[in-house]
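Lecture notes, unit on protein representations.

Consider one protein chain, 254 amino acids long.
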Amino acid sequence: MNNHQITNEVIWVTGASSGIGRQLALRLAQAGNQVLVTARNVEALNQLAREHDNIRVLAADISATDALQNLTQTLATYTPVLDRVILNAGVCEYFDISNPDWSMMQRVMAVNYFGAVNCLAAAYPLLLQSSAGHIVAMASQASRVPFPRAQAYGASKAALTYFIESLGVDLAETSISSTVVELGFVDTPMTASNDFPMPFKMTVDKTVQTLVEEMVARPRFIRFPKRLSWMVSVARSLSGLWYHQVAPRLSRAS
């Protein structure tokens, strides 16, 4: 791996049909990596694959009951080794306490947490075949402090964060490293319908550029935008200020 870029790797990107995952897969392919892309939207993945010869489609529903078995079998037919897996697939639903949908917790967790675990379980034997495997999990700043209506999303990302952190301890004696990425708001199809203020919202291009640059060093955490990360860090130490002053302003715009 070049000290200044990621190249000549075999990389698996989940959630690659749109937004960050799509742009990330394309940028990595353009940098000379062989990229496997996964999502449920086969048509969108095929369109992405037509944009670069280094992209191959592995369509799947990572939350399905047979996902682990299917992913494991399919990955083995594509490549004998993975240098990096980027667990990017995710969904977001907002909880309404005046009309609560409690089943939302299970739906969101099925993709954001258990889906990521399925993918990692399938990827792990292939990561061990790399001289320096890397697990990258896309979490969220929302898991660090309580955001309004984000019970399902924030809890799923908190679970993913702890899982990857704990896994990192157990991987210390292997050639595999792990990174948790905690993003803020990004202008993607997933956030397009948000009806509340999104401070420091970033473009997809800037997000992917920053992410690729920081992934090279394989830190335990990547957090940005820095201004939001700083605000969240202060909020964690001054929880009363967050609960009573900041968080209420992040509720619905209406």
